[in-house]
Amino acid sequence: MTVDLDTKSMDMSCLGLEMYSLIGELYPICRSITGNGVRKTLQIIQKHIPLEIHEVPTDTSVFDWTVPKEWNIRDAYIKDETGKKIIDFQESNLHILNYSIPIHKKMPLAQLKEHLFSMPDQPDWIPYRTSYYKETWGFCLPDRILKSLPEGEYEVYIDSSLEPGSLTYGELLLPGETTDEVLLCCHSCHPSLCNDNLSGIALVTFLAKYLSQKPLRYSYRFIFIPGTIGSITWLSLNEHRVSSIKHGLTVSNVGDSGHLTYKKSRRGTAEIDRVVSHVLKNLPQEYTISDFSPYGYDERQFCSPGFNLPVGSLTRTPFGTYPEYHTSADNLDFVQASALVNSFETYLTVIDVLENNHTYLNTNPKCEPQLGKRGLYSTMGGKQTTPEDRMAMLWVLNLSDGGHTLLDIAERSNLNFSTIKNAAFALANSGLLKVCLSSVST
Ligand code: ZN
């Protein structure tokens, strides 16, 4: 089976606007690791793809962790002595320490300050803070406002609930020719933050939509889960499935203007590591490739030693390395449709390599076959051949001994995978190559 995934027939500026508009629709929702914000988010994604929504009850044991109580919030504010709201959850959901327990109380400034979080180095931004595993309450606010608060009595009100409920996640499996799977995972737990969280959700949604219309070799599993506890929960409930995962990527921070960054899987030399490295090296733009470290997104759980799955992380600017990260400045102005499109195209190129990375056998291995009499010297796939195409055909014929994949050949010849793939397609169509069956279901 030959798979051709490209964006030639797609209106990419339209796709960029669609991804951006999904981010805009999801932006106001107050999400957390549990609760109605996640459900509402997944329901909106269901308008694009047939996502299955799973609910895992509070107190379910998942390896060394327990599914937490469900958190929901309706309103929160701080009023000064005159009754004026100085902090209002309705203006930004980042104002609330995520997972704050309910409270309605008056208190002096000194006591209130123990529950206020700001960023002195970015006095106009609201920081994003959470307290999932310690029951407390708090507010986040610009340092400029914190510094301006006069002494006095303040009224604190948080209308939230932290009760037994469930953890919600979304999942979609697109079946392919084999049951071997490619896993694409994004986290769905951040509130109004665009690059960290929403850009990944938008890219994975539209990638799933695109791939659902294509015949595929691999099966594709898309999961939308809360960070850390979500992947731990998913792995705990799906341990019997993980041996099917042959390649995987965690998707986040894919909408900023920075360059692409790949963090390798724990294995370091897995096929996904080689594929993404090859794709990035052949892009006409800057990129960074870094080794695995046990910190970051959900690749931490997929790459824990008991699983050691081939799951890397393909982002633009990595988490924690841009000032807007986990602040109110990671907003709709921070992500760009053009960056989302560039990330989408790169993911699609990676998937195209995975889909087509077969091993072939030269059916005419004794000396070079005569390309001219088969019309391959001057034309290939209906197009005029270039010197590069001819070199690609010679490399493919020479290394197709059943022991080299097309990626092996691309790496060794220093040619782009797509050039090697097109040469292999043309040679196979002329009967000079056949696919090794072992490479179809690895
Ligand atoms: Zn984050």
What is the general shape?
elongated
| Proportion of helical residues | 25-40%
> Quick one: CATH class of the largest domain?
Alpha Beta
What is the CATH-assigned architecture of the largest domain?
Answer: 3-Layer(aba) Sandwich
Cα-atom radius of gyration: 25 Å
Approximately what portion of the residues adopt beta-strand conformation?
15-25%
Number of helical stretches of at least 4 residues: 12
- Name every ligand kind in the structure: zinc ion
Overall number of strands: 21
List the strand order in the largest sheet.
1-10-12-11-13-16-14-15
Characterization of the model:
With 442 residues, this protein is α/β, with parallel strands linked by helices. It has three domains: 12-67 and 166-356, Aminopeptidase, CATH 3.40.630; 78-163, 3-Layer(bba) Sandwich (Glucose Oxidase, domain 1), CATH 3.50.30; 359-441, Winged helix-like DNA-binding domain superfamily/Winged helix DNA-binding domain (Arc Repressor Mutant, subunit A, Orthogonal Bundle). Helix content is 30%, strand content 24%. The protein is built from twelve helices and 21 strands. It has helices spanning 12-26, 36-45, 109-113, 143-148, 194-211, 229-237, 271-281, 299-302, 337-356, 387-399, 406-413, 417-429, and strands at 52-57, 61-62, 65-66, 70-79, 85-88, 103-108, 116-117, 139-140, 153-163, 166-174, 181-187, 219-225, 245-251, 260-263, 287-290, 311-315, 359-362, 379-380, 383-384, 401-405, 433-435. Strand 11, helix 5 (194-211) and strand 12 form a beta-alpha-beta unit. 45% of the residues are buried. The site of zinc ion has 4 residues, from loops.
